[in-house]
Write a structure and sequence with these properties.
The chain is an alpha+beta fold. It is about 20% helix and about 35% strand. The chain has three helices and five strands, in the order E-E-H-H-H-E-E-E. It has a five-stranded antiparallel beta sheet with strand order 2-1-5-4-3. The radius of gyration is 14 Å and the shape is globular.
Amino acid sequence: MNPNPVIELGRNREICYVNPATATFFPDYHRLGANHPLFNNLPELLEQANARGMKSLVRKITINGSCFEETVLWSDSSSDKQRMAIYVNKISDFPEGKSVSLPEAD
């Protein structure tokens, strides 16, 4: 079993699967749904990545004082069974008030 959060989203970005680690790291993910910080700016980033022919992206996000690396993989957007998998790895904790900025897109 993966000790890190794994989330699978369907074609309309509905949550189809979460592993037990997701609830451990992010107990509010279900209540917040698409408004959870895991999904901040994700539609825009996916649109940019798709326009470049990419099928994955990696970004750093800060949630509740902890820094995470979020890897997002997705299938062909023309497929009726399009899926998106999000793998989250904790990088470190930050003191209160500190944050990490996302790198600028190329």
